[in-house]
Target: Choice-of-anchor B domain-containing protein
Amino acid sequence: MKPLLSILLACTSFALFAQTPCSNGTAGGFACNDYDLQSQIPLSTMNSTRANDSWGWTDPLDGKEYAIMCLIEGVAFIDISDPVNPVYLGKLPSHGGSSTWRDAKTYGNFAFVVSEDSGHGMQIFDLTKLRDVNNPPVIFNEDAHYSGFGSAHNIVINEETAYAYGVGTTANGGGPHFVNIQDPLNPVNEGGYAAAGYCHDAYVVIYNGPDTDYSGREILFGSNETEVVIIDVTDKTNPQTISTIDYNNLEYTHQGWLTEDHRYFLLGDEQDEINLGLDTRTLVFDFEDLDNPTLSFEHTGETAATDHNGFVKGDTFYLSNNAAGLRVLDISEIGGGTMTEIGYFDTHIENNEAGYNGAWSVYPYFESGNIVISDRTQGFVLVKKSEPLGISEVSASEVIVFPNPASEEIVLQSEAGFINKAVIVDILGNILFSEDVLTSEENRIDISNFSEGIYFLIINNTITKKIIKK
Model:
């Protein structure tokens, strides 16, 4: 049976780049630091010319991971269970026309899609359809439709309460629009909140932070163009503004995300780099007291690129930084006013200037560690943190492998005696080479037929070496 990548290349004319380690600051033509390229699917494969937002879904039945890629004319679904050989399964066309802005989130086994397409409403799609797709790519149909609003800039879902919040909609003056999705195929309009004005993006959570006055309440943190708004939306019939906060050099309050302890809110202003000439700026608010939020500090990034969407996972902040691509920051010392960039993968090779080019969004929540980057022109890009050297490799000084990286063959030398067994596996654990008895202290292994990427050489069942095929 042919490898999937070979089948794809034989059946199509598009270029699909796969499994390229970050070496000497580049991977597959992209600038990088400590993040490897797993694979890429260009927009042409998805019959599109522009990408925007992205999200992900993990099938609870078998743990398979799927990327959800928003495009100007619909939503693409990609099977990334084999991250080196992703499969473009097909597309759900827009309910209206095309639009630069489209957004999708998930609840259970359903995706909910909104767009600024006029009259688009909210599409509901059963993700379990992705389990059995014959002869991909296919055109999918929506399973239900909600028309309680027309266009919407974004959608937020609180999976704990099964409520979707349309924001920037044609209803409620653009304020949050409440939709009960406890029965996903039969969404129910439960009103909205116009008092705080237009909401561009939001984060909604059952609050469990330091302000015990609001413990257990459903709180919406809105990025409302000119301020951050904190709203108690527990009672959908009577939502209440708790507080608002602005900041210096305010240009456009775009999007923010809470730390997992609900103490700090990391905000991006979409236009301060463009209009004021600032380097990438992340504002960190202290929400110890929700009635009296304060600005804790501002973090300045490494480039002049415009920040876009940022997400927190543990002590790490993953920022889609437009022309600077994915930037990864350590926020473990955020309480002390410190954030530190620890890696990046730059999908916009032309420059790192301010403006609306490059990475629109990222999705860092897959258990596998694979991270989706939706780049406006590069399309779907999948990356993963570079694998660290194992303890056995550091201590195995008696075994030498060279050259590394290699293109044709690798040489094994042992200073301590004969090598009894050598096995080479790929990142999925597939055995590509195995020899039980090697006959000398120097052995040559042909890897010329391997695809470019990362492999692991296991020696005598105890020593592991990472090798790179270039």
